[in-house]
Amino acid sequence: MFDDLPPDLARLLTLRVWHAMWLERIDRKIAAVRSREAEREQGRNSRPAAPDWIVELGIGEGRLPVELHAGDCYAAGKRRRPVSREEARSLLASGLRACTHCEPQLELGILE
Q: In terms of Cα–Cα distance, which of 39, 13, 17 is closest to 25?
């Protein structure tokens, strides 16, 4: 049998202490990663749902609506606010531009 461990007790005990220290380091790292993953999962679970419709707002005082988007549209700008289905339909009926990427007017049932 191949035995590559040292034959004397002092060196064996030193190796045992060294490996115990490494196991402790590894266990701490595992606990930290598990904690980080649990926090991420809690963040995903507690994140509010995306709104069904959002209106992109203009720049300046008053911030008038500029364009209507579906809630998950990638083309929506940073200045926005959620709107209800009724308000979205009303905004489109009043002439607000609909996004050409997500085309919210189709899902709202407005053909023109």
A: 17
Cα dihedral across residues 16, 17, 18, 19: positive or negative? positive
pLDDT at res. 112:
60
- Strands (E) located in 1-112: 53-57, 65-70, 80-83, 97-98
Structure tokens at 6: 């040292």
What's the predicted TM-score (pTM) here?
Answer: 0.59
- How many alpha carbons lie under 13 Å from residue 90 in its C-beta half-sphere? 6
* Most confidently modeled range among 18-32, 40-54, 59-73: 18-32
- DSSP secondary structure letter of residue 48: P
- In the chain, the percentage of residues whose pLDDT exceeds 90 is 65
The domains of the chain are located at 7-47, 53-108
DSSP 3-state percent helix, strand, coil across the chain (nearest 5): 45, 15, 40
Please list the residues that pair with 82 across neighbouring strands: 54
pLDDT exceeds cutoff 90 at 109: no
